[in-house]
Amino acid sequence: MTTYKVAIIGLGRMGSTIDDEGHFEVPYSVAASTKASTRLELVAGADLQSEKRDAFAERWNVAVYEDFREMITAEKPDLVAVCTAACLPKPANKAPDANSRSDSHADLAVAVADLGVPMLFVEKAMASSMQRADEIRDAIKRNNTLFNTGVLRRFDNRYTPVKEAIEQGRIGEVKTAIHYAGSSLMHGHIHSIDTLSHLIGDPTIEAVRGELLPRGFKIEGNHIPADPLATYQLRFANGVEAWTIPGGYWEFEIIGSEGSIRSFDNGARVSLRQPGTKEGRRQLWEEVSFDTVVPESTTMSCLEDLVAAHEEGRPTLGHIDVTHHITEATIAVAESHRQGGTWVELPLTTRDLYIFHV
Question: Which tens digits make up the pLDDT trace of 124-166?
Fold first, then answer.
């Protein structure tokens, strides 16, 4: 069985240390997930900060570099994971000024693809504007790079029963999709929009309506200096409509013509409701519970999907076209807010609206 060499750019939280925070029972950082995989071999890391390089080298016993280009040239990795903050400097959570357009994910994704690395993982969101997302898409396509991003519920096995039940027609024709949780736009709703889309088969999103919070938020100069809280509504090409409701703990509900299915507590359990017996004219509903799914490492699943796509000659589960489309829908929420909360159609005509996020 072939193993593939992995190198990481950005040796902080997602690259190396997030598992220390105790959020997950299974490996979550790229380094830990790579070490846990039988298909992947961690060979190197790169970071501009010497203290992070030193800690990474000591922890994982691999070579470290200040210059990612030097690392790629020397180590010849099969897969590079971009785990830097999206917008620098970090740990700042706000742009330093109105002229700031930093976008390390876009800078590095384009550079790594153009260096000929065959497989690329980029932390979410892939870019901070559609102008830069377009550049990534073009680089991925011209280099035939396989691509996934860190919207990891798409790779979470606890959502598999939900997706399979929908595909099997157990709720009939899908009509409505709902996400429950308050969240910021680029850090959170990039996940929620992606998960809703994934669960119903990734139909094209035709239009988006949304607002940023607080509702009086003003966008000036095509620049949003910090990741805003947001709500949204989506209209899919197949007639399905979707909403986010700012309450709950990361729950997803898909409602169909013959039932509904809901994932509770950030994927912890699933419940299916279907028409049951009748009492006179009243239609009663019956609840079907699912067995608890033992969680697997979503990061490892994402990285191994790149390997499987490489070997099988197929698109990845989070391929560039779907990721680019979800990113556009997410940024369209802010564009809708700027236009007074009206529906905006995709693709967006404005490509340079920039949203700072980490």
Answer: 999 999 999 999 999 999 999 999 999 999 999 999 999 999 9
State whether 38 and 146 are in the same domain: yes
The closest alpha carbon to 52, from 3, 17, 103, 92, belongs to 17
SS (H, E, C) the chain: CCCEEEEEECCCHHHHHHHHHCCCCCCCCHHHHHHHCCCEEEEEEECCCHHHHHHHHHHHCCEEECCHHHHHHHHCCCEEEECCCCCCCCCCCCCCCCCCCCCHHHHHHHHHHHCCCCEEEECCCCCCCHHHHHHHHHHHHHHCCEEEECCHHHHCHHHHHHHHHHHCCCCCCEEEEEEECCCEHHHHHHHHHHHHHHHCCCCCEEEEEEEEECCCCCCECCEECCCCEEEEEEEECCCCEEEEECCCCCEEEEEECCEEEEEEHHHCEEEEEEEEEEECCEEEEEEEECCCCCCCCHHHHHHHHHHHHHHHCCCCCCCHHHHHHHHHHHHHHHHHHHCCCCCEECCCCCCCCEECCC
- Count of structural domains, the chain: 2
What pLDDT, on a 0 to 100 scale, did the predictor assign at position 226? 96
pLDDT band at 186; cut points 50, 70, 90:
very high
Are residues 193 and 241 part of one domain? yes
Q: In this structure, are 8 and 140 located in the same domain?
A: yes
Q: Provide mean pLDDT across the span 193-207.
A: 98
Closest listed residue to residue 325, CA positions, set 126, 162, 109: 126
Please give the pLDDT value at position 322. Answer: 98
The tokens of 271 are what?
Answer: 């419940």
Give yes or no for residue 298 having a pLDDT over 90: yes
Compute the distance between CA of residue 175 and CA of residue 186 in angstroms, rounded to an integer: 26
Domain that includes residue 239, residue range: 158-295+327-355
State whether 200 and 92 are in the same domain: no
What is the C-alpha to C-alpha distance for residues 336 and 96, in angstroms, rounded to an integer?
25
The answer on 140 and 12 residing in a single domain is: yes
Is pTM beyond 0.85? Reply is yes
